[in-house]
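To fix ideas, we reproduce below one chain and its tokenised fold.
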Amino acid sequence: MISVKKRREIKAFLVTASIGIVVLGGQQVLADAASEMVNPKDKVLVGYWHNWKSTGKDGYKGGSSADFNLSSTQEGYNVINVSFMKTPEGQTLPTFKPYNKTDTEFRAEISKLNAEGKSVLIALGGADAHIELKKSQESDFVNEIIRLVDTYGFDGLDIDLEQAAIEAADNQTVIPSALKKIKDHYRKDGKNFMITMAPEFPYLTSSGKYAPYINNLDSYYDFINPQYYNQGGDGFWDSDLNMWISQSNDEKKEDFLYGLTQRLVTGTDGFIKIPASKFVIGLPSNNDAAATGYVKDPMP
């Protein structure tokens, strides 16, 4: 049982850490809201919009995901990540194409959200992404992202690499280097190209697979939203409770949320440090959005 005092500490700590929840060239640039490169002005609530048609019964618990236009994203989300920028079969460079709209129509969707002060990022990767960038492809990768920004009006990019793609080929050096160049490119125009990441938390140790991305993009990334879900028995040792606190232990959910966040924003117990001002917690928005990690009993 967690004490009232600790509950208050948890609330204060998580608010300080800017809570967020995960639920999930060459073309003429139009003079519309999508040209503005909108950034959030306050705390962020991040959601992922799926660029594919729902097949029904595709949820982790047997439910069905919803089909809706990007601009119809539920009110409250002020950062929407479009999933995903991936490498098409038979190609070597990741790209993006709307699955059910023309380029002009999709840009209009982003423009509508930008006009409401909401940021729209392109998410690179996903669980089944086959992204294997080589050093010789860095310039092409930079140009492709800029082309996507010019075409659709994206406000930044979310690194969402998982599994083998994290360390594949030269990804750990090419992707950070390319994103630095893109951020500097837009800075010249007085714009901030947002760079965010959504790493699975076990990769956030000081020598973990995401360390090269975080270290190489230090002072460049805007925030990081670690995945606090789908990690089963992974967690940390709590010396105060004298026990292992795993992500899948619902009875110790409050201790897990507080303890992992504390370790990440302070860089203790072997975890890499992520400043509280650039930290967003990644959680499923409902029980069907992930196999584990949904907070069944939110704090009062």
